[in-house]
Design goal:
The chain is of the alpha+beta class and 276 residues long. It is 54% helix and 19% strand. It folds into 2 domains: 5-83, Winged helix-like DNA-binding domain superfamily/Winged helix DNA-binding domain (Arc Repressor Mutant, subunit A); 129-274, Endonuclease Chain A (Endonuclease, Chain A, 2-Layer Sandwich). The chain has helices spanning 5-15, 19-28, 36-43, 47-60, 79-119, 135-148, 166-181, 192-197, 199-211, 255-271, and strands spanning 63-68, 71-76, 129-132, 152-157, 185-191, 214-218, 225-228, 232-237, 248-253, 273-274. The strands form 2 sheets. An 8-stranded mixed beta sheet has the order 3-9-8-7-4-5-6-10, with helices on both faces. It has a two-stranded antiparallel sheet with strand order 1-2. It is rod-shaped, with a radius of gyration of 39 Å.
Length: 276
């Protein structure tokens, strides 16, 4: 008799037996045959359930039965044979379940692939647009846009500004410096009056020009705007009268819009004056 019954019973359960079946099988291993009553007394299973458990185990091929009438005896099938029988039973059930899932998979594929193919190119009206009001989120999204830019970075540089802390300003300066160093053409147009009034903006511009930013001045810009690679356009949404100084920034991934905004930028670039 195996001493560590709890551990062994769990192993039987892992194989596919119930706890009651495991207890009965372990007991049957201790001698050649048991009656139902003898098993009931030794494994603590109600008599009404014992017969049901034994018949199921006989049907599964892990217990043998002999005798007639009331004198029926039950014995354990050799472990090697019994356990392989249980394992094969599991494999057959598992294979059946796999075949059901494969059949369901094929039916779903044949049903829904045409629907996917028919609708995959349909784009929702807001799939191009992301709107942010939180400055941290705007900063993160702006930095991501800079990192993705490969050849062309254009800005109408005017307020409102997200970089209203030294940390955010430093992060923007570093990413824009990397942008220039990797060969991206960076052109900025600034409003003359705003540039004269904002000291940190003057310092920022002088530093970026040393790195290679192209900068020009103009009397007035229609809006704050960034255009990346004829792909992404960034601009603020006007706040309603009486609202706080929070910024609402819109990010649009749309080639035609970006190309149009670039045409506007180039038009104003020609009308602006080089920064000295």
């Amino acid at each position: 008799m195996v001493r560590d019954n709890r551990k062994q019973i769990q192993m039987f359960i892992n194989l596919g037996l119930t706890e009651r079946e495991a207890k009965v099988y372990i007991r049957l291993l201790t001698r050649k045959g048991f009656t139902t009553l003898e098993l009931q007394d030794s494994v603590d299973i109600p008599r009404t359930k014992m017969y049901e458990v034994l018949q199921k185990m006989v049907a599964r091929g892990i217990v043998t039965q002999w005798g007639s009438g009331r004198e029926k005896y039950y014995g354990a099938v050799e472990p090697k044979t019994a356990f392989r029988t249980v394992l094969n039973e599991f494999k057959n059930e598992y294979q059946t379940e796999i075949e059901k899932k494969i059949d369901a998979l094929e039916n779903l594929i044949s049903t829904y692939t045409p629907i996917y193919e028919q609708n995959k190119d349909i784009v929702g009206p807001l799939d191009f647009v992301e709107v942010f009001r939180d400055k941290v989120q705007i900063q993160n999204k702006y930095v991501q846009a800079i990192k993705k830019t490969k050849y062309d970075f254009l800005t109408f540089n005017k307020g409102p500004y997200v970089c209203d802390t030294s940390k955010r300003l430093s992060e923007q300066e570093k990413e824009e410096a990397k942008l220039i160093k990797r060969g991206v053409i960076c052109r900025n147009i600034y409003e003359e009056k705003e540039l004269m009034e904002i000291v940190w903006l003057q310092k920022y511009l002088r530093h970026q020009i040393k790195l290679g930013q192209q900068a020009r001045l103009i009397a007035s810009l229609p809006i704050k705007m960034v255009v990346c690679d004829e792909r992404t356009v960034i601009f603020p949404l006007l706040q309603k009268f009486g609202e706080s100084n929070n910024i609402t920034m819109i990010f649009v991934e749309h080639h035609e819009l970006a190309l149009t905004c670039k045409m506007l930028f180039n038009w104003l670039w020609e009308k602006s004056l080089p920064f000295k």
